[in-house]
């Protein structure tokens, strides 16, 4: 999926995509999959999200977002790695005048050197959609 398509996703959709694709989230994936069969099927992609009951969906959505955020926050290595790549190697603050589409593509390439391209694009969409890059780099 392209960066532009990922940018259209909300926080839950980005978190669910990361949960499905990123091996580093295996623990969270296992914990959520073991709660309910419906959740396991949605995580596996064999059941679409929209068929879940409303109450079940709300709880599932909250747990997916919290689980992914929790891993990203608890694992200092991700924060340190993202900070080093984006702020120092890419020099994000110096490039704020670049057109956004060019910056996204360049950041995607920079992140793909450390993560798979798909994970890099999902992480980038999550950071950009919540305007976290300026905060991360202190611009």
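^ structure tokens above, recovered residues below v
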């Amino acid at each position: 999926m392209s960066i532009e398509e990922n940018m259209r996703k909300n926080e839950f959709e980005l978190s669910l995509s990361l949960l499905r694709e990123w091996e580093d989230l295996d623990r969270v994936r296992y914990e959520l999959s073991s709660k309910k069969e419906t959740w396991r099927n949605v995580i596996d992609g064999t059941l679409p999200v929209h068929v879940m009951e409303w109450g079940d969906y709300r709880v599932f959505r909250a747990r997916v977002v919290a689980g992914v955020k929790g891993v990203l926050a608890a694992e200092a290595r991700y924060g340190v790695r993202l900070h080093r790549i984006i702020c120092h190697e890419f020099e994000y603050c110096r490039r704020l005048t670049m057109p956004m589409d060019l910056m996204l593509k360049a950041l995607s390439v920079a992140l793909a050197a450390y993560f798979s391209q798909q994970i890099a694009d999902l992480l980038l969409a999550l950071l950009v959609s919540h305007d976290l890059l300026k905060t991360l780099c202190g611009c």
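The chain has a mean pLDDT of 89.
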